[in-house]
Amino acid sequence: MSSIGSAAAATRTFKVWRGERGTGEFKSFTAEISPGMVVLDAIHQIQATQAPDLACRWNCKAGKCGSCSAEVNGKPRLMCLTRMESLPDGDVTVTPMKSFPSIKDLVTDVSWNYEQNKKITPFTPAKRGAAGVAADGTFRMQQVDVERSQEFRKCIECFLCQDTCHVIRDHDKKEVFSGPRFFVRAASLEMHPVDTADREPFLKHTGGIGFCNITKCCTEVCPEHIKITDNAIIPLKERVADRYYDPVVMLWRWMFKKKG
Amino acid sequence: MEIQTFEHDVLVIGAGGAGMRAAIEAADAGCSVGLVCKSLLGKAHTVMAEGGIAAALGNVDDRDGWKTHFADTMRGGQYVNNSRMAELHAKEAPERVRELEQWGAVFDRTKDGKILQRNFGGHRYPRLAHVGDRTGLEIIRTLQDHSVHKSQVAVYMECCITKLLKDGERVVGALGYYREKGRFVLFKAKAVIIATGGLGKAFEITSNSWEYTGDGYSLAYHAGAELLDMEFIQFHPTGMVWPPSVRGILVTEGVRGEGGVLRNKDGKRFMFDDIPENYRNQTAKDIEEGWRYTQGDKHAMRPPELLTRDHVARCINREVKAGRGSPHGGVYLDISWIKERIPNAREYIKKKLPSMYHQFMELGGIDITTEAMEVGPTTHYTMGGIRVDGDTQMSNVPGLFAAGESAAGLHGANRLGGNSLSDLLVFGKRAGEYAAKYAQQQQPGWIDEAEVKASMDWALHFMDAPKGDENPYKLQQDLQKSMQALVGIVRKEDEMLTALEKIKGYNERALKVAAPANREYNPGWHTCMDLSNLLTVSEALTRCAIERKESRGAQFRDDFPEKSKEFGEVNMIIKKAPDGAMQLRREPIKPLTDELQGVIKEIG
Asked: CA nearest B513 in A: which residue?
């Protein structure tokens, strides 16, 4: 039946980063390990028995809400989906996401992400009678045509892609770059069969999609397995390149002094 | 004490589907809206809803309509529902779903390009609009993305309300604290909408997250609002049971809707053994007919796995107790068997149930396309809650509204799957609309500073208590174990009386819970405060469950295993007495209008 055996209780040492607003240190805790246990279970156990004020975010504990993002042994992960059996022997380090300001322990200030979302033009459907919109206003879309958008709409906003993206993590370009999560959001709208808005100016000027050099780190950490780079960012980059950097279009624009 | 203060026309407490829908509606009516959420925006439990949203769109089977949806909801709720709410819900759900599509939700499609609908327990026709098995996430994100562009909505994230404030009879504001810094915050408002979801955390095995500590019920109760039929707690039949760390996590009913079957350890489809009389003529006679139903045969009746949740949960419980369960105390739910019937079954399952596939693969090490899942009942949903007027969603306290799982009435004794997402939208919108109307007729109220101070002192006293006296986490676990064992799926008077005694003891222990360290993001401190809500609602639901001496819907009494006419005509009402005691009374259910009675006769 199950590949998870009922192994005898064992213990593991967790080195959890504890501190407030950027200053702190690793503290060691020992947790009892039961079959099938995930890192979030260990954090809860530590909270309930050893450190009641240990701060961490979580909600669904099933990989559906994207709250418990942290770095386990230095890798951006959802703690609720990181099975103990998947980790190598030895101490387990748990640290907050590095790219966002620390609040306390494993909790970081992710408000910057919420600000990015506001910059994206919302869904703007075509008018009645246009392609894909019936006379009564309801949409007519084929499954195959909505699937591209649906892939991006699987995003649970865990912000692990933002955390791992080197433009944010190493270069801290938060002022001029919105990050993979919001390219995915823009892609979900741009590829909606009846959407009519134009988000290319956002992608080029505000979102800073040009900073992405397609290292695919975001795709690797996505718990929803969204092909962020291949399916969202590259097609959007192509659109932006066609519009702003196509030599023929550039010449045309230079001749007629159109700015876009 | 200096305290940060905000003023809004309408304050919405809770930012799941109902809260966000209410906030959008009140903002569109021209109100300034405060939207308070205990977690980050977009993380509410609505994201966990998987199977779909029930609305009689008739896209897959054009025989469907509001009358059938209404009759199904009443039958599922065993006729103790608020029939006005069931009527409004059935009539308005299709419009709310179409509106979501206009706001950007991308539902799965039929061949002719319309919104696709699937079968679900207790629904006569394929009725659930869905997006694979992540419909709740789609709804949350659609509402979130729609509301972030509304300048009239101010969002207060990771903010928890501890007290509703009144000016005479009227609710005029609320006091809370920010989880991040532990600072207090005061909201002045002309109307308050409670949309805080349920109380799953009163039980040990639950699909609910840490947030669902019954805050809204408790806040409303202490402000004088009546709570209705708190005994009706839905135990979803299929939660994960193994490994221990995932026990209780939901397995969508969509698995059964797509052809999944329940078997005991002997491989028997045990659901065929016990089909309730009132569903007999709507249930398949044999395995073949059940299969044809899941494949869209309009002449076939549904397989017994798609009977209502209360019944399926009890049958699973019975198999396990009789020693016919799976190794870890559940039964088998098998979708992989459909490979005997359709080509490409593996791809079909992964397409239709993608998050179930990943959930079992990543958390259980099970490939659901080749193996059966082990499942058992898990505390899932509160049918009872704040008593509201069906049209306006206002409680008996002026200015206090409720919507979604925090409000009661629509679902009666048992909720049909898919009816909660539609509930959120239909009554979230109504609460927003009527709270806005109410607020626009009111002057700002007077805030009693002494009450505010007393409430802050109460919150802070957990800090002053001597260290280590009583661990809030331990107390919460003890309460959950007692509720699970004594007021769970099968109930008995003597056990529930024991539960009341235990709750009394826990209340005494709760006076001694302490939260060492400071106020900055301190989950121990937050748990101390949540506990007080959990204890209030646990007592309320136990009292109602004792008083209802019959088995109906989600309430199963071992000592009263039958339905009774007497109790079929009453709701249980909980109210705080002037002396602070919890009072319970029975109240006759308003009879159905002639029109609705006609509908039930017509539909059968």
From this structure: A52
Distance in Å, alpha carbon of B571 to nearest chain A alpha carbon = 32
Element (H, E) at B172: strand B170-178
Tell me what the mean pLDDT of segment B233-258 comes to: 92
Give the active site residues of B.
236, 256
Q: B195 with B14: CB under 8 angstroms?
A: yes
CA atoms within 13 A on the CB side of A166: 7
**pLDDT for residue A7:** 46
Question: Does residue A1 register a pLDDT over 60?
Answer: no
- pLDDT, tens digit, 9 for 90 and up, residues B4-55: 999 999 999 999 999 999 999 999 999 999 999 999 999 999 999 888 999 9
Q: Is the pLDDT of residue B444 over 70?
A: yes
| Cβ–Cβ contact A141 with B under 8 A | yes
ipTM above 0.90, yes or no: yes
Q: Does B268 touch chain A (CB under 8 A)?
A: no
Note whether B43 contacts A: Cβ–Cβ < 8 A. yes
Mean of all residue pLDDT scores within chain B: 95
Residue B326, SS3 per DSSP: coil
Interchain pair B243, A104: CB under 8 A = no
CB B586 within 8 A of CB B544: no
Q: What share of chain A is helix, strand, coil (3-state, %, to 5)?
A: 40, 15, 45
- Given a contact cutoff of 8 angstroms between Cβ atoms, the answer to whether B154 and B91 are in contact is no
Is A53 in Cβ contact with B525 (below 8 Å)? yes
The predicted pLDDT at position A260 comes to 46
Question: Sign of the C-alpha dihedral, residues A177, A181, A186, A187?
Answer: positive
Q: Which of B45, B100, B101, B36 is nearest to B404 (CA)?
A: B45
Cβ neighbours of residue B448 closer than 8 Å, sequence gap 6 or more:
B165, B166, B167
> Of B477, B583, B525, B489, whose CA–CA distance to B204 is shortest?
B477
User: Considering CB atoms only, which of A55, A83, A146 is closest to B521?
Assistant: A55
Residues of chain A in contact with residue B521, where contact means CB-CB under 8 angstroms, are 53, 55, 103-105, 107
pLDDT in tens, A166-187: 999 999 999 999 999 999 999 9
Domains (range + CATH), chain B:
4-234+380-440 (3.50.50.60), 241-377 (3.90.700.10), 449-585 (1.20.58.100)
How far apart are alpha carbons B405 and B194 in whole angstroms?
Answer: 10
> Are the C-beta atoms of B241 and B329 separated by less than 8 Å?
yes
Q: What is the pLDDT of residues B191-228, one digit of tens each?
A: 999 999 999 999 999 999 999 999 999 999 999 999 99
What superfamily does domain A110-256 belong to in CATH?
Alpha-helical ferredoxin (1.10.1060.10)
Amino acid (one-letter) located at A251:
L
Residue with tokens 């092909």: A227
Distance CA B537, CA B533 (A): 6
DSSP B218-231: HHHHHTT--EE-TT
Query: Hey, what CATH class is A10-107 in?
Result: alpha beta
Instruction: Provide the β-strand partners of residue B379.
Output: B206, B235
* Alpha carbon of A252: minimum distance to chain B alpha carbons (Å): 35
Are the beta carbons of A61 and B523 separated by less than 8 Å? no
What chain A residue is nearest to B151 in terms of C-alpha separation? A118
Q: How do residues A26-48 score in pLDDT, each as one tens digit?
A: 999 999 999 899 999 999 999 99
E strand residue ranges, B438-498: 490-491
* Residue B419: how many other CB atoms lie within 10 Å: 30
Is residue B84 a contact partner of residue B393, using CB atoms and an 8 Å limit? no
| pLDDT recorded at residue B180 | 94
DSSP type of residue A204: I
Other CB atoms within a 10 A radius of the CB of residue B519 amount to: 20
DSSP state of A168: H
| pLDDT at residue B463, rounded to an integer | 86
Contact across the interface for A156 and B47, Cβ inside 8 Å: yes
Question: What is the residue extent of each domain of chain A?
Answer: 10-107, 110-256
